[in-house]
Design goal:
The complex is a heterodimer of chains A (272) and B (284). In chain A, 38% of the residues lie in helices and 22% in strands. Chain A is of the alpha/beta class and 272 residues long. In chain A, strand 1 and strand 2 form a beta hairpin. With 284 residues, chain B is mainly α. Chain B has two domains: 50 residues, no CATH class; 218 residues, MetI-like fold, CATH 1.10.3720.10. The chains are: A alpha/beta (272), B mainly alpha (284). At the A-B interface, helix 2 of A face helix 8 and helix 9 of B.
Chain lengths: 272, 284
């Protein structure tokens, strides 16, 4: 499956796509989810937001998606602004309509844009083939495994061919073997479709395997603790996953995360 | 299918054998037990009548009731038809009104907060107490009865459908928003399907209530001597001390209620069987 991939040359510093500048988010219950967050996502990036729970990584993702607006600071698009309709979003759970078939679930984003069933059929067939679900068009979510449901969710998020894909801990609830497989698949889709991906996770190993950049976040209040480049060539496959280089990168990233967790504890102690 | 084939070829241990035997016994018992008890009860009823020499105008023997059901079939079934017409029209109006109001409530929290209390007031006030008013305001006999059946039946549908419309998955609603869904699209493609199991649950309750509403309304109206449904047959039989016919009419009403419940349960099962937990067989 990975054989036909060729290493993609990515320019040293691609054009920035979007920036968060001094973004803060406070809720009426007194919780400060984010405070002074600066980050830039470049075109073609596979960025992971890594951090302990409560560090506001999901909130940051929702702000990028336009599902939530920042209390302070701004969200800036550098080239043409990407509206909500040009981005794909994958939730923590598969979030499928339980009454609808796999086909109808993947059709949904197109249907909401007024694309008829027959017009959408070729795109849906292609997308289902990409996530290895050909033949399951008429199954309902209930009949699928957790991994297959997540594949449907990914197919649905990409069927409109968005440039930007936002993923909120999509594989957290899956077993390791399924997760590895989906990690391979998502990298393949990222390269083939020249996507920009923002991937929220609390797994060091997942973030190192997938991303070219990791933004480590700390909690209470949610903030950027540091940034971490993953200097390993793509395509990354099973060999990379078992290599010493991967182990070393994971160790470095773990240390960065540990620093963020300690910083979170300190700030909570100060507040207490 | 392959799983079953494998199971057949594997030797079954005693625990599994016991489980299979228990399941089979339960399956048979589910039908045999209630039928046996029912038969015994009817037998006991018959014996009590004979042994105590109870006159048939106080408590008729089951055979006499059955005879009355056969002899008066023309009269009773034409009355049943009148009652059924009110019941189903009332139920249909309750579905239209209940779902319509629920959809209206779902459009805005403010509308729901403003009008839901009225629905509760209608629900908790006994229909028998409201009927004299309806009797004053409404002339048409059918309209009177329909109004009663409707008032009794619409609340479970309204309440359940409102709950269902508000129970659509939060993330799915975000997804609809992300894809620029209109209010109408969200209602039609997300909230109504999500409300379906709740609505069907309400419908099962409302089916029985519509029958009760229709019969109660006939009773109250019948007392004024203007009705021809099953309830008026019961009142009439009561006046004449025709206990066998009274029992026959009663049995007919109960049987109708049971049939309505079974039909609505079946409809609900057929609509939900592919996706909803409540309609799925337990997998082992």
């Amino acid at each position: 499956m990975l054989a036909h991939q060729t290493p993609t040359e990515r320019p040293a510093s691609p054009a920035p796509l979007l920036s968060l500048r001094g973004v803060g988010k406070a809720f009426s219950n007194g919780v400060t989810a984010l405070s002074g967050v600066d980050m830039t996502i470049r075109q073609g990036d596979f960025v992971s937001l890594l951090g302990p729970s409560g560090c506001g990584k999901s909130t940051a993702l929702r702000i990028v998606a336009g599902l939530s607006s920042p209390t302070t600071g701004t969200l800036d698009w550098h080239s043409e602004p990407i509206g909500q309709r040009d981005l794909g979003f994958v939730f923590q759970e598969p979030t499928l309509m339980p009454w609808a078939s796999v086909f109808d679930n993947v059709w949904l984003p197109l249907r909401l844009r007024g694309v008829s069933r027959s017009e959408a059929a070729p795109q849906i067939a292609e997308m289902l083939e990409r996530v290895h679900l050909t033949g399951f068009e008429n199954a309902v979510p209930r009949e699928l495994s957790g991994g297959m449901k997540m594949r449907v969710s990914i197919a649905r998020s990409l069927v409109t061919r968005p440039k930007l894909l936002l993923m909120d801990e999509p594989f957290a609830a899956l077993d390791e073997i399924t997760r590895f497989k989906l990690n391979d698949d998502i990298l393949e889709l990222w390269q083939d479709r020249k996507l920009t991906v923002v991937f929220v996770t609390h797994s060091v190993f997942e973030s190192v395997f997938l991303s070219n950049r990791i933004i480590v976040m700390a909690a209470r209040p949610g903030r950027v603790h540091g940034e971490f480049g993953v200097d390993a060539p793509y395509p990354r496959d099973e060999r990379f996953r078992t290599s010493a280089a991967y182990a070393a990168l994971c160790r470095d990233a773990s240390e960065a995360l540990l620093g963020a967790i300690n910083a979170s504890h300190q700030s909570s102690r100060v507040r207490a | 299918m392959t799983a079953i084939d494998q199971a057949a070829s594997v030797a079954i241990d005693p625990e599994e054998t016991r489980r299979v035997r228990r399941e089979r016994a339960e399956r048979i018992g589910r039908w045999v037990l209630p039928l046996t008890i029912m038969t015994l009860a009817i037998l006991a009823w018959d014996r009590v009548c004979v042994w105590n020499e109870i006159p048939h105008y106080i408590l008729p023997r089951p055979g006499v009731v059955l005879q009355a059901l056969v002899d008066d079939a023309g009269l009773l079934f034409s009355s049943l038809l009148v009652t059924l017409r009110i019941t189903f029209l009332g139920l249909a109006l309750a579905v239209a009104g209940g779902v319509g109001l629920a959809v209206l409530f779902a459009q805005s929290k403010w509308v729901e907060m403003s009008f839901f209390p009225f629905a509760v007031v209608l629900q908790v006030t006994p229909i028998v107490a409201i009927f004299p008013l309806i009797n004053i305001y409404v002339d048409n006999q059918t309209t009177k009865l329909l109004l009663c059946a409707w008032i009794v039946a619409f609340f479970p549908i309204l309440s359940n459908t409102t709950l269902g419309l508000n129970s659509a998955d939060r993330n799915l609603r975000d997804l609809f928003a992300l894809n620029g869904a209109t209010r109408w699209q969200e209602l039609w493609l997300l909230r109504l399907p999500a409300a379906m199991p709740y609505f069907l649950g309400g419908l099962k309750i409302a089916g029985g209530l519509a029958l009760i509403g229709a019969v109660v309304a006939e009773f109250v109206a019948g007392a004024a001597g203007q009705s021809s449904g099953l309830a008026s047959r019961i009142i009439e039989a009561g006046y004449r001390l025709n206990a066998p016919r009274l029992f026959a009419a009663l049995i007919l009403i109960s049987a109708t209620g049971i049939v309505i419940f079974l039909v609505l349960s079946w409809v609900s099962h057929m609509m939900l069987r592919r996706w909803h937990e409540s309609a799925l067989k337990q997998e082992r």
